[in-house]
Amino acid sequence: MRETWAAHTTPFAAVTLGFFTIVLNVPINNAVLTSDRAALPADRETTRTPWNTLNAIRIPINYLSFLLMI
User: Fold this and answer.
1) CB-hemisphere CA count at 13 Å for 11?
2) Cβ(54)–Cβ(16) under 8 Å?
């Protein structure tokens, strides 16, 4: 029974993780990469806080997906 549950949950978690990363994290990453590193913007916390929040959601999904594959 566990194998069946894991077999169905793992692909779902992987697809969710990929969608989550591409749609939410990558745009923030691109904005940070194109910013001027010599002069950090004054509102950099407004970019970093959402990224950290999204990453805090994404990492447990990643670990769960990995554990289900074992």
Assistant:
1) 5
2) no
Using the 8-state DSSP alphabet, how is residue 35 labeled? S
**Residue 34: C-alpha distances to residues 30, 42, 70 (Å):** 6, 16, 38
Two structure tokens written together for 63: 């670990």
Helix, strand or coil, per DSSP, at residue 13: helix
Quick check: 3 pLDDT over 70? no
pTM of the model: 0.62
For residues 64 and 36, give the distance between their C-alpha atoms in angstroms, rounded to a whole number: 36
Q: What is the DSSP letter of 1?
A: -
Please write the tens of the pLDDT for every residue from 38-49: 877 777 788 788
Distance from C-alpha of 48 to C-alpha of 25, rounded to nearest angstrom: 11
